[in-house]
Amino acid sequence: MDDVSRRRFLALVPAAALIPTVRSTPEGTLIQVQQPSAPPGFPRHDPALARETVGASHANLARVKELVSASPALARAAWDWGYGDWETALAAASHVGNKEIAAVLLAAGAHPTIFSAAMLGQLETVKAFIAASPGIQKTRGPHGLPLLDHAKAGRARPWSGISKRWVTPSPGIPMSRSARRTRQDSSVPTPSAPDPWTAWWSAGIPGGGS
Predict the structure, then answer these.
(1) Contact 74/89 with Cβ under 8 angstroms?
(2) Does this model's pTM top 0.90?
């Protein structure tokens, strides 16, 4: 969304049509509450594209490049997989350790998080998050995964065997043959040496791995 669209939206919101909803008071009385809505026809992404972007961000580098090239705002796409299990495109790449896709999304404007920093091995950034908000390391990411799992994923890259369901196209942006035919596979083996993240975490930041 460009700056003109944002300014237009902010100007129109106060005058937007109000959608009535009904709520119950503690005494059991029903009252009508007016809630603002976006102006009709205000630009938004097709939900199918948002879902595909998040799904592809687990493993399909070629498709992610196609999607964010056509619409960079999709780098910030999010999807609720059910019961409030929200996942962004960057979160998808982060919890499976897909650094290449994370780099594409960040370059296109995805918002960095403590989870993406942990996956990318950005130790000082993780420390800064925790210093600014003590206890944040105990917050779980999408699918209930703890922060330490993201750090380990960035080392082991376990996403090589992810299902082809992540390459299911949406009708909004055409999928290339290469994106349809393949999913990314890891050529980097899981390191046999002790993971420095694990040692640091155990020594300095309790609560982030459980």
Answers:
(1) yes
(2) no
In the chain, where are the structural domains located?
Answer: 3-36, 47-191
Q: Which of 54, 53, 52, 58 is nearest to 185 (CA)?
A: 58
32-91 pLDDT, tens digit each: 656 566 677 777 778 999 999 999 999 999 999 999 999 999 999 999 999 999 999 999
